[in-house]
Every structure is written in C-alpha cells, then in structure tokens.
Amino acid sequence: MYSRNIPTQIASKFQQIRKSNYLLPVSILLLLLLSLTALIFTQFTVQLYVRMDGESIGTVPDTETLDQLIVTTEEAVGDILGSPFEIEDRLSYSLRIVHVNEAESVNLDSVEQSIFQQIDEIDMHYVVSVDGNPVGYIARRSDLRGAMEARLNQLVDEGVQSAAFLSEVEFEAQYIDLDSKLDPAGIETLVMTLSVETVEQIAYTESIPYAVDVILDDTRLIEDTQILREGTAGKMEILAQITSVDGKEILHTILKTEVLTDSVSEIVLLGTLERPLTASFGEYIWPVAGTVSSGFGPRRVSVGSSNHQGIDIAAPAGTPVHAADGGEVIFSGWNGGFGNLIKIRHDNGHVTYYAHLSSIDVSTGQFVYRGQFIGRVGMTGTASGNHLHFEIRINGVPVDPMLHLP
Questions:
Q1: φ, ψ at 119 (rounded to 5°)
Q2: Is 89 helix (H, G, I), strand (E, B) or coil?
Q3: Does the first or last residue of the chain, that is N or C, have fewer Cβ atoms within 10 Å of its Cβ?
Q4: Cβ 242 vs Cβ 188: under 8 Å
C-alpha cells in the first residue's frame, strides 16, 4: 500500500498549465519535468513500514533488505531451537513516499531485536562466564550482581576489613530456547562458588621465648649440667592483618606489637670437662650373662645366710665377669664366705660386690670402666655351685640389685 504526499507548489503549477489557453513549447515542458523530478528525488524518500503479527516493529529501506533480514533471523532462531523456523508469514509491510523531514531513521539491529522479542519460543537471557568459562544463564544481571554484593557485605558485617571477588564475572546477552535443557544458573549457589579475598585485623597474645644463659664449668663433666635459675616465658600482644582466600590464610602481616610481660632468661651451669673412660654413669649393666638363681632378701638355704644381701646369677665356671659401672677397685682378694671378692666404689658413692670368683683380673686401687673384664665365675668361698654373687650397697646398706639393673 502506497501513500503519496505531493507538495502544494507542484499541484499549483499543474493547475496553471491546465487553465492556460496556450501550449508550452516542448523545451519548456521538458525543463519543467526535469525540475519536478529533481524536486521529488531531493525532497522525498521511500520507506517500508514493517509489522509482525500486526504490531509495528520499525522501518527498512527496501524489500531486498527485508528479505535478507527474514533469512538471517530464521536461521538464527532455527539454530537456537534446533529445528527450522519460519516468520515470513507473520510479517507484513507498507510502502510509503514521505518527505525527508518526516522519514523515520532506519535501524536494522532494532528491527531484528523486535522480531526476536515477538517470538514466544525463545527469550533473552545473559550467559554468565566466570574467568572466561560459561557457567549458566540468568534473566537479569541485577540479580547476580545483587547477590554478589550481599555476600561481600555479609563478610564485612562479620568483621572483615574488606572483601573482593578474585574471579572475573562477565555477562553476554543471548537468546535461548525456553524448552532447552540449559537451566538458569542458581544464583546463590553460583555466588558461593566464587573465590573471595578478605582482609581483616585481629589482635592476639603470644608467648615470648626465654633466652638460655650458659655458664661453663671446667670442673664438671661435659654431660653434667645444673639449672641455676628456671627460665620464664614473657607475653606479647600482637595486632596483625590477615589476608585470606575463601577462608584460608595466605598472608599474615604484623602491624603492631606490645610487650605485656618480659621473659626471664634461664641460667644453666654446663660442664666442659671431658669424661674419663673410668668415670661412672650412675646406671648399671648386668655384670655377667646368666640366670638369676637366687633373689635379694630372706631365703631358705642349706648353706649360707638366710638373709640374702644380693642376687646370685648362675653361669658356667669361667664365664667372664664385667664391671657394672666405672669406678675404683677398693678391694680385690679373698674374703671368707665371699671367696674371691672384688669391690668397686663408684663416683656416686655406691659400692658393688662381685663374689665367688674363680679368678680376679684387677687389683686394689685400679680404676676400671663400665663393662671392663674383671674376673671369672667360680664357686669359691661358701657356694654350692658356679655362680656370681652380686651386690649393690648404698651408704653401706645392701639394696635389691634388681631395682637398679636394666
């Protein structure tokens, strides 16, 4: 359907020619026609007014442009739906000649957008991408942005100094098939998956380790130490800035420290004297390999005391006997019911006895080391069989050796 709007001055010229009683020369007539043609092309234009389902959706310059727009739109919608789609029957247009001052501006993108909006099978959504990876569709960007802002505000309300998302969230407008299986992204779930960096300040106390002051003593053995004063830890208050990603600390910056109580150093006396080979350890080893045949304390025997002051370790005659700890031999020789006897005094004042020996291999006044060979098992003195009678005396009083042997 065409609408023609002819200017008043052109109509007036034709009226004048019709009313005149004379004929114009051919050259003047041609000149007039050329003028009219030029006037029409400079002052008027042709436009196609397009409707879809009876509703105006814009203008296009010509039918060729409209045909191309129909083809591209049907292809795009068909790709979205996955099946052929036609809109040509839903479109109509009218052709109009209008003055250039009254012509509507042509915006093909707007016309195409209007066509998409009239198609019920599809709708405009936003593809949400996180760090370049698409994660789903949402209808309104404001929903996701609001949820993101709410999460950051919640963190600030909970006491963090600042909070920011590390992930880059982008939106791209797209038409999607409303019946497609691509569900819109669950906004709350999506927001909770985004990495968040938080910064907060915290105050806490921490102990201050005490120093250890060592005093060297060349009269003591190297392993001989004595604590002259116990050390005491101090206390410090710390203000720190904590940077975390998703609750995991990645940076701990100390902003301020204040000492609440000072630490007190520990004073230790440390010996520097090299241990002599024959020095005592204060701990005993078994003097002979064998079996305990008689324990410490009261006992019933056919020969000997009924109050046993040591233990008997049964072993074959000639079995080597060793010093249970380092020290000085204060007796070696025959001693009545003990038979061949060795006594060793140790650095802690203890004295160990080794009795009924078949042979003695150390002499009085000699210093021996722990584990040194000193004699052999026998049954000299009052003894009913080959064994070693072993005693430990503290301040001259016999004690149960089993309490001191490993």
A1: -95, 115
A2: helix
A3: C
A4: no
The partner residues of 82 in beta bridges, in order of sequence, read none
* 237/254 Cα distance (integer angstroms): 11
Query: What stretches of 44-136 show up as alpha helix (H) in DSSP?
Result: 63-81, 108-117
Distance CA 121, CA 284 (A): 96
- CA 368, distance to chain mean position in Å, is 60
Half-sphere exposure of 22 (CA within 13 A, CB side): 4
Task: Please state, in angstroms and rounded to a whole number, the distance separating the CA atoms of residues 16 and 32.
Answer: 13
Please report, in tens digits, the pLDDT of each residue of the chain (406 residues total).
333 344 444 455 545 545 554 445 666 667 666 665 555 556 667 778 889 988 888 888 888 888 888 898 888 888 888 888 888 888 888 877 766 565 556 678 888 888 878 887 887 778 888 998 888 888 788 888 888 999 999 998 888 889 999 989 998 888 877 766 556 667 888 888 899 999 999 999 999 999 999 999 998 888 789 999 999 999 999 999 999 999 899 999 999 999 999 999 999 999 998 888 999 999 999 999 999 999 998 876 665 557 899 999 999 999 999 999 999 999 999 999 999 999 999 999 999 999 999 999 999 999 999 999 999 999 999 998 999 999 999 999 999 999 999 9
Structure-token pair, residue 259 = 């000492």
CA distance 134 to 174: 12
| β-sheet bridge partners, residue 270 | 216, 225
> Which residue, 294, 288, 321, is CA-closest to 382?
294
Q: How far apart are the first and last CA of the chain?
A: 120
Query: 291-294 and 311-314: which strand pairing?
Result: antiparallel
Q: State whether residue 41 is helix, strand or coil.
A: helix
φ and ψ at residue 101, rounded to 5 degrees: -70, -20
Question: What angle (nearest 5°) sits at the alpha carbon of residue 56, between those of residues 50 and 58?
Answer: 55
Burial class (CB in 10 A: 0-12, 13-18, 19+), 243: middle
Is the distance from CB of 148 to CB of 187 less than 8 angstroms? no
Cβ(141)–Cβ(184) below 8 Å: no
CA–CA gap between residue 46 and residue 3 (Å, rounded)? 10
Place of tokens 């209007």: 114
Length of the chain: 406
Structure token pair of residue 370? 């722990």
Q: Could you tell me the pTM of the whole model?
A: 0.46
